[in-house]
Write a structure and sequence with these properties.
Layout: H1 12-25, H2 31-42, H3 46-50, H4 54-74, H5 76-93, H6 102-127, H7 136-164, H8 171-188, H9 203-208, H10 213-242, H11 247-251, H12 253-271, H13 277-293, H14 301-315, H15 318-329, H16 334-343, H17 347-362, H18 364-387
């Protein structure tokens, strides 16, 4: 007898192009590295540069629910394909940015934000079409691993294009081409179509999910998880420059963070296939808090990067755990909950200006206090998730 997971449109053959989509999803994580190139190129202040990521992340607040509605109308797969098309255009438009044309960066990152919002709302929901429910958190962590690979490679690609090819902006057509390949792969792959939700997805049905204390808590968890994640990309180069490290080397600092994030997501994909994610949640965040707090006492680049590595390991799966736990709590509302989770990614837009403001007033230590504030909520959320019993606080 044919196993259910091997039916047409399910299993690893359907999952692989979805994982390729997670690599494209990782383009939102390039903003910390790219910002460190755009800021000196266009003469932006710390506060002005802090608003550049907002061009990506503000759309997570504005477009996520319409993305969920679009999933309900044209299907999750078609919604992902539409988002990939917008991302391709954004990548090639960014080539025209430069001194005197900083507005091009803002427009291209806004389009990247729109495309990334739609794909982040639709892709985890599409993944639920092809994997068993009890494996969803594990597979989302696997997707986050692929996404983290993209983020880990970006500073390396920026460095190589800047040094070897003389133009760091060649990163954009490279990623635009990768997006085209991912779109073609998904388009050609059969993926099981989800059953239409009764009554469809609406603004009201999405926002109504926030009436659940559990879903509200997990939505805020995504907000602070993304805020801390983007914050580290912003913070590490400035910490290294404060230690008088060469600017090019300091720009590679986020690579350490993303390598640890990649390793953490891979470990999570294996761990959550066997262990309950809710029970693991507080322990992983505790590691992040310890690593971040230790940054106050780091006096050498090596020690600072060790602290960052530990913090990244702890944060690597917080997004996936929050989303997976929320979807599994109310699986019949997957489109609505995915939209809410993605709306909460606006945390990246809120936290980065706060980081710039704190840096101008308190120096690099002010950056660490902001990161710890985000992690404090996640630690409380982890404890909350660990003590919940299935069926309570819906």
């Amino acid at each position: 007898m044919e196993m259910p997971e091997m039916r047409r449109g399910m299993g690893w053959m359907a999952l692989m192009p979805i994982l390729a989509g997670f690599f494209v999803m990782g383009f939102s994580d390039i903003i910390g590295t790219v910002m460190n190139q755009v800021k000196p190129e266009c003469g932006l202040s710390d506060t002005q540069a802090g608003f550049l990521p907002s061009m990506i992340f503000i759309w997570f607040f504005l477009v996520s629910i319409p993305a969920g509605i679009l999933c309900g109308r044209i299907g999750r797969k078609n919604t992902v394909l539409a988002s990939l098309g917008v991302t391709v255009f954004a990548m090639f438009l960014a080539l025209a940015g430069g001194p005197g044309r900083v507005w091009v960066y803002f427009v291209s990152f806004a389009l990247l934000g729109i495309g990334n919002t739609v794909i982040q709302a639709a892709l985890p929901a599409l993944m639920s079409n092809v994997v068993p429910q009890d494996q969803l958190t594990s597979r989302i962590s696997l997707g986050q691993f692929v996404k983290a690979v993209c983020a880990a490679l970006t500073p390396v690609f920026v460095y190589l294009t800047a040094k070897a090819m003389g133009n760091w902006k060649l990163l954009f057509p490279l990623y635009g081409t990768i997006t085209l390949v991912a779109a073609a792969w998904l388009w050609r792959t059969p993926v099981r179509r989800e059953e239409p939700a009764a009554g469809g997805v609406t603004f009201g049905s999405c926002l109504a999910q926030l009436g659940s204390p559990y879903i509200l808590a997990m939505t805020l968890g995504v907000f602070f998880s993304v805020g801390a994640d983007v914050g580290f990309g912003y913070t590490v180069p400035d910490y290294l420059r404060d230690m008088k490290v060469d600017a090019d080397v300091a720009g590679m600092g986020p690579t350490v963070y993303f390598i640890a994030k990649t390793a953490g997501a891979f470990i999570g994909a294996i761990l959550f296939a066997k262990a309950a994610p809710a029970k693991c949640f507080p322990w992983t965040v505790l590691l992040a808090v310890a690593g971040t707090a230790a940054m106050f006492f780091a006096r050498t680049p090596a020690l600072l990067l060790a602290c960052v590595f530990a913090a990244s390991l702890g944060l690597a799966n917080t997004f996936g755990m929050a989303m997976g736990l929320a979807i599994n709590r109310v699986p019949e509302k997957t489109n609505e909950i995915s939209s809410l989770m993605v709306m909460a990614i606006v945390g990246g837009a809120v936290v980065t200006p706060v980081l710039g403001w704190m840096q101008e007033r308190s120096g690099v230590n002010g950056l660490t206090w902001v990161l710890l504030a985000c992690e404090a909520y996640l630690l409380g959320l982890g404890i909350f998730a660990a003590v919940q019993k299935k069926g309570t606080l819906k």
